Amino acid sequence: MTDVAATPRHRRQPGLLAFLLRRAPLALALVGIFAIAALFGPWLAPHSMTETNLAAALQGPSTTNWLGTDPLGRDVLSRLLGSAQVAAQAFLIVVLIGGVFGTALGLVAGGLGGLLDLVVSRVVEVLQGFPTILVAIVIVALFDPSLTNAMIAVGLAAIPDFARVSRSVAIQLRDREFIQAARGLGAGELRILWSEVLPNMVGPLIVIASFDGAQAVLWEASLSFLGMGVQPPAPSFGSMLREAQGYLAIQPIFAVIVGLAVSGVILGLNLMGDAISDYLDRGGK
Predict the structure, then answer these.
(1) Cβ neighbours of residue 169 under 8 Å, at least 6 residues apart?
(2) Gap between the Cα atoms of 216 and 22, Å rounded
(3) What are the average pLDDT values for consecutive 10-residue runs of the chain, which has 285 residues?
């Protein structure tokens, strides 16, 4: 991703939605479907997400079950809608943890500089050195396997990404004219960081949130596949793929459908991040 220079608030460019419709319709469509499924999944689901029916196990797509059934006879479409909700929760947990703590660290380090910048940079480097899967295993071992516990590990891994971007933008902005004007009016450094610098790094942070959110969806599926995330009978992309693994020779369409669903979510979020980055680079044109 290219380095995105922040633009002062009074020069922000409008028209992001129009730009996405023109330049990234696939990303907009995929993310839109994901958002609708996550928000309205329980109401859109044609069947129960957890109720089993062994007599209808591993059936192909039909008028009753549009995407077929899983090994326990549960409706695949309904469980995919539930899995989208879980993926959205993972997205939010990771972005909140990484975004809040990472942005705060980078903002203060880049805005104030000096010894504080050096200390924060070393802390970020230490966090970046911990393997995500190892941290997840430790947290799950200390507590219970769950979505929240698994995503805490992924959120900690996202802190360096947000910290690097917010620090870079803060360094670019701290000597700009409108910052100097605020200092001349007597504003304190922390107030300047909060009211002048932070609002001007929203765009780059949204780009990072999109990319790290896609990683969160992937990690949620991976950890649930390994049994360290969402626990049965709750639906999850990862647990559905684990269930499909043992029936590839009997009903491969089950694994294909789930794989396409999770791939579509991750692809859409990554394409969205690329499109927003391009929009900011072009100045909204």
Answers:
(1) 4, 5, 6, 106, 110, 197, 200, 201, 204
(2) 27
(3) 46 72 94 96 94 93 94 96 96 95 93 88 87 85 87 92 92 82 76 85 93 95 92 93 92 94 97 93 68
Q: How far is CA 212 from CA 150, 227, 259, 273, in A?
A: 15, 22, 20, 9
| Distance (Å) of CA 18 to CA 13, 14, 172, 277 | 12, 9, 28, 15
- Residue 241: Cβ-neighbour burial (10 angstroms; 0-12, 13-18, 19+): buried
Using CB atoms within 10 Å of the CB of residue 196, give its burial: 0 to 12 exposed, 13 to 18 middle, 19+ buried. buried
Six-digit token string for 249: 């020779």
Q: Is 264 exposed, middle or buried (0-12, 13-18, 19+ CB in 10 A)?
A: middle
Structure tokens at 94: 């990771």
| pLDDT for 113 | 84
List the beta bridge partners of residue 69.
75
The per-residue pLDDT for 245 is 92
Mention every residue, 6+ apart, whose C-beta is less than 8 A from residue 151.
89, 90, 93, 94, 97, 216, 219, 220
**Residue from 155, 152, 37, 29 nearest 86 by CA:** 37
Going along the chain from its start, the domains and CATH numbers come out as 25-41+66-281 (1.10.3720.10)
Residue pair 34/271 in contact (Cβ under 8 Å)? The answer is no
Q: Which of 239, 64, 212, 84 is nearest to 146 (CA)?
A: 239
The pLDDT assigned to 31 comes to 97
Q: What does the buried/exposed string (b/e) look like for 96-113 if buried means 16 or more CB atoms within 10 Å of the residue's CB?
A: ebbbebbbbbbbbbbbbe
Packing angle between helix 237-245 and helix 252-281, nearest 10 degrees? 150
The per-residue pLDDT for 10 is 43
* Cis before 42? omega within 30: no
